[in-house]
Amino acid sequence: MSVEPTQPLWRPSDERIEGTQLTAFMHSVRDTTGFDAGGDYFALHQWSLDEPTAFWRAVWEFTEIQGDPGEMTCDDPMALPGFQWFPNATLNFAENLLRFTDDREALVEIDEGNAQRALTYGQLREQVARLAGWMREQNIQPGDRIAGFMPNCIETVVAMLATTSLGAVWSSCSPDFGHQGAVDRFGQIAPRLLFTADGYVYNGKRCDSLARASDIARAIPEIERVVVVPKLLPQPALGEIEKAVLWESCLSGDLPALRFEPRSFNDPLFILYSSGTTGVPKCIVHGIGGTLIQHAKEHALHTDISRDDRFFYFTTCGWMMWNWLVSGLARGASLILYDGSPFARDGHRLIDAIDEERITVFGVGAKYLGALEKAGVVPAESHELSTLKTLLSTGSPLPHEGFEWVYRAFKPDLHLASISGGTDIVSCFAGGVPTVPVYAGQLQAAGLGMATAIWNESGKPVEGEKGELVCTQSFPSCPVGFWRDTDGSKFHAAYFDRWPGVWAHGDYGERTSEGGFVIHGRSDAVLNPGGVRIGTAEIYRQVERVPEVLDSVVIGQNWQDDVRVVLFVVLRDGVTLDEALTARIRGEIRTNTTPRHVPSKVIQVADIP
Fold first, then answer.
1. 57, β-bridge pairs
2. What pTM, to 2 d.p., does this model score?
C-alpha cells in the first residue's frame, strides 16, 4: 500500500525555524558561496548533491571542526567506492570532542535507582589526560586497537577519548555479550588493552563481568593489560585475571599534558561489527574525519543540538548509537548516560529522566515507544516534559500509529525525528529536519549530502513504490573498509555487488510525495509469498494494533515450493492464543494490507530475543 498524502502532525513555528542552526547554515552558505536556498530544505539538499565539495567544506567551517582541512575536499566525489574525502587533512577526533574546557556538565551518569554523578568539560579533559598518559606509558601507538567490554558509563567515554587522543582505534561491545560473542569480535582485531567493569546492574539484578573478561583475555593473547572499573564493588577481586589493573591506578600520579596525535582524515577511528547471521561478525572500520563531520552535520543541522542541550539516547556500547551519542560532545552539549533496564521504576525510568535531568533531546528505539503504548503509559499525564523539544526514534520502523501516539502521549509541540542509517555508515541516510513538517510514518527527508533514493528491481528511481534504499554518490562516512579485507572484495560484495558504483543498503522502503521516506524493514527480511515482496514492517504495523500482543516476529518459511508467512507472538500475561484471537490478528492484517500478508501460521511464544 502506497503512502497517501496526509496533514502533518507537527509544523515548526516561524520562530523555531529562524532559530535553528540549519537556518544559520543556509545564511552562511549564501554568504560564502552565493547559493541561496531561500529557507527551502529540499533546495539545500539538492545543492549539497550538485556541489558536494562546496557543501562538505561548508559543514567543516560551520561546525568549527578543529584541524587543517587541506586544500582538496575530495579527489572524485562521484566515485563510490574509491573516493578520498579531505585527502590532505589532519585532525584528531578527541580534540574535537574536548574543545570545550569550562564548568558546564559534559557527562551525567544515571542508573536504575537514584544515583547520579557528573563530570564537567574541564574535569573530563583532566581524566582523559591522566588515562592517556598511562596509555602512553604502555607504549600505545597510533593504529593500535583498544577494546571496551563496558556498560554505558563515564569511564567508557573517558577510555574512548584517551584512545582516540593517541590516534589508536576504539572498539566496544556490551557486557551482556557472552564470552564467545565478545571473542568473535575482539579476537579479529587483536586489541592491546581491554577495558572492563567488574559488572553491571540490569532490572535490579547484579551481573558479574569479571569471569567473562578473564575468559576474553585468555582467549586473545594480544591483550597486554585488563583495566577494571569498579561498578559493583569498591575493590573488585582481580586475582582471577592476569595482567589486571584497577582504573584508579591508571589515573593516579602527576597530571600530564593532554596531547592530541594528528591523524589523517581517513585513518581508522572505530571498529564496529555487523550482526550477520552466518560466520563471525564483519569488522567495519570507520574513519576519523568521516565519522566526525557526518555526526557534526547530523547533530547541528538535523537535530539542532547546541551547548544549551541535554542529550540522551538509550543505547548500549555495542550499538552504533553510542558512538553517535558521544559525538554530541563536539557540540558542547551535556550527555546523559544510562545503563540498565529502560523499564525500571515500573516502566517510568527513562521518562523520569526527562524531568529529573532536564533532557531536551530524547532518543530511544521504536520498540521502546511501542512498549510504552502497549503498557498504557502516557508521559504527559504523569510528567512535565517542559524541557523536551526533540524526540528521536530508530532501531526499527516507527509505524504511523506510533507517530500519532507520540504526539498524544508526550506533547503536541515536539520535533519527532525518525532516523535510519546503520552500523555500516555509523550515521543516517534519512532522518529529521527541524525546519520541515512531520508526517505520520515518515522519515522527514534524506540527509544533507546523502544521495538517498529508492530503486526498483531494474535499478530505476521510484516514488510511491516500494524498493531498495540506495545511495548513488559518495559520502565521507562511508566505511574505510572491513578489517583484514586486504583486497576490499568482502567490502565490495557487501554493498556494491548489486549495482556497481551504488551503495545498496539492504533496507526496503519508499519515497513519499512529501519528500520523506517510509522504511518497511530490511531487504533480507522481505517476504516473498507467491512472488510478491512484502516488507515485514507492514505486518508489524497491523499486529501492533492488537492489544493482547506485546511483541512479535514474522518470518518467511520455505514451504511446498513457495514461501509461507509465519508469525510468532508474545501475549499479555494470562492471555492464550485461541482460534478467536488468531482470527482477529489475521483479520486485522487482511483488512489493512492484502491477503498475501496474512500469516499461514500464528504461534504463541514465551519471549522473543
1. none
2. 0.90
